[in-house]
Amino acid sequence: MMLAAPVLVAATAPVPYRWTNVTIGGGGYAPNILMSSAEPSLAYLRTDMGGAYRWDSAASRWIPLQDDNAESSFMGVEAIAPDPVDPDIVTMAAGMGYGQPSAILRSADRGARWSVVPVPFAMGGNEAGRGLGERLSADPNRPSTLLFGSRHDGLWRSDDRGATWRKVDGFPRPGLGKPERRQTHGGVSFVLADPSSGRSGGVSRRWWAGSADESGDHLFLSEDGAVTWRAVSGPEGLLAVKGAIAGDGTLFVGYASGIGPSGVKTGAVWRFGADGRGTAITPADHGNGGFFEVATARTSPATVAVSTINRSSGDTVWLSNDSGRSWRDLGKDARRDVSATPFLGHDGKDADFGHWITGLAIDPFDARHIAYTTGATVYATKDLANWAPWTRGIEQTAVITLVSPTDGPPLVSGFGDLAGFVHDDLERSPRPRFTNPYLSNTNRLDYAGLAPRRWVRGGSLFDGWPREASLAISSDGGRSWSPIKLPPIPQADGSTRREDLNGETPPAVSADGKLIVVSASRPMVSDDDGRRWSPVEGVSRGSEIVADKRIANRFYALDFATDRLLRSNDGGRRFRSIDGASLPGPLDGARPTRGRESQPRLVASPFAGGELFLHWWQGLFRSSDGGKSLVPVSGDLKVELFGLGKGTVHPTLYAVGKLGDVRGIWRSDDLGRNWARINDDAHQWGLRFRAISGDPRRAGRVYVATDGRGIFYGDPTGGVQ
């Protein structure tokens, strides 16, 4: 049969929406935290994919500084330099990775607005080595002078607050140039001026710079205002990754065997005088792993703290009050209160002191106020003993998928690194629920349309973690789970293999919750919660299988191998072609683009049996007769992601896509005849999106999963229109 004629589409006036983060509280890796020396209680945080934040002491929360940014690459922040004199000025280096746009961002209002200066040197805000630094430094005596240590192109200088840049020809490490594909360089790891070597208004004479490239020297000193440089001896075979200068001009350096945050096996801590002479001050019983961040106290020149990284017994922070002659392990007796963010026990264990501690700061105005960053949160203390997450306002996570069900909690999510959550209250950090098995990544979620307390999930674990199962089923709305295991499947070479351990077997549950179908190389079906399995007939390996949300025994499959939309009316046991069905074109146009983390291209409506929506290329198609006919419902909107929500006669359509030259989030209340943009230029989040879903119970409500800024939910400010 022929496809129905396309629907003409128009862009209607934008619909004002109020956007709010679903509260997790931190959740991702923040490579560094910086406390201003110009004003008490002013701090900045940089993340590797969620942009930068500023601590607002009056509001007692972190303020995201790049939600209006539309350039994806700039959400990976390479370095931040708060002005050491004027608290309103801050400069930032932004760029996700080699081959992506990079820039210096300048602000005179604490990051509320930025001017963007494109630069010729590449950044790596989300590459290996993103915990190095800080690479960007303002001269405390003349803040209009900034130096930036690049990864691939040596040392750069600006004397006009970052408006223009020139390469420092006298620096002995000019850079290793373009890296090999999928590799990076550490490059110039940090740059620091010694404030005691100059006077206000004049350039500081003494500058230090570290190198994290494997060959050659790793620490350099300039005594003529960063014009000429000489190498300074340190520990052999280790990279200078972090540095901090005390008030008396002493330089403390953390050394590591790699650029981190993974793979560091050993390290050291050294102290250097103004003459360049160094002394090893490594804590004697630090164990294995390396050292990364180093912080000094402005109010006490002899006070220094260092963080470990990749230590097998767990990372910690060491504190010295005598310039490194003796050390105290702050993690040994630390008390941690994570009641505000209980997800930190997400792997079934108590929250630990932290891992990937590459950010560490001592408050310039209060040496007992110390904060450090980890791969999942930011901890702070004011008494050196009691620690708590310092994350109010920070939502820095990578979300893989989300579902808003027809009953129970408003939202269930699947995360990268944090497994996922049942969100009973969108304003409270959720408790960990995705255990038995715990999976670091949740790639697929599905619930039974007629029995919405029945859920299945599938995911994957970090490389190297033991794998017992990567599928699970729940009968209480996702609050508790039981593992599902597939039997070994015969392979072409005559062997058998469990194929469900790598996250590549997405599950689907029937509308009544009694049947589970799993898409393995040999798709299988179970009617007893995964205890026994039978092969599915008529569908090829790698097909995308979904259950009808209202018809108990019906499943559908996109069979990419045969370019067919198939249907099963007997509980997923046998799939057959749909009489008279016709697809928009070859199913290559509907293949997953993110592998196992891709959103489903075929979605069954929760509102009516036999109602399907197919995402093919950049178009969206609807069937109201179980897949027999498909009608275009996106018009000129180039759809990237889509979801369904409560409507009046038909489902409301939500989409991430591009209409004309505007890329954003869109809503249609009339099956694609008209689309209204529902985000605005202040809410773009780098245009980094992973999933979208409407709410089936609340008209106008939409959930958006970002890649770095967590989950947002949006509601029309004037009610449903």
Automatic annotation (TrEMBL):
<dbReference type="InterPro" id="IPR015943">
    <property type="entry name" value="WD40/YVTN_repeat-like_dom_sf"/>
</dbReference>
<keyword id="KW-0624">Polysaccharide degradation</keyword>
<keyword id="KW-0326">Glycosidase</keyword>
<protein>
    <recommendedName>
        <fullName>Exo-alpha-sialidase</fullName>
    </recommendedName>
</protein>
<comment type="similarity">
    <text>Belongs to the glycosyl hydrolase 74 family.</text>
</comment>
<dbReference type="InterPro" id="IPR002860">
    <property type="entry name" value="BNR_rpt"/>
</dbReference>
<dbReference type="InterPro" id="IPR052025">
    <property type="entry name" value="Xyloglucanase_GH74"/>
</dbReference>
<dbReference type="GO" id="GO:0010411">
    <property type="term" value="P:xyloglucan metabolic process"/>
</dbReference>
<keyword id="KW-0119">Carbohydrate metabolism</keyword>
<keyword id="KW-0732">Signal</keyword>
<feature type="region of interest" description="Disordered">
    <location>
        <begin position="474"/>
        <end position="510"/>
    </location>
</feature>
<keyword id="KW-0378">Hydrolase</keyword>
<dbReference type="GO" id="GO:0000272">
    <property type="term" value="P:polysaccharide catabolic process"/>
</dbReference>
<dbReference type="GO" id="GO:0016798">
    <property type="term" value="F:hydrolase activity, acting on glycosyl bonds"/>
</dbReference>
<feature type="region of interest" description="Disordered">
    <location>
        <begin position="577"/>
        <end position="599"/>
    </location>
</feature>
<dbReference type="Pfam" id="PF15899">
    <property type="entry name" value="BNR_6"/>
</dbReference>
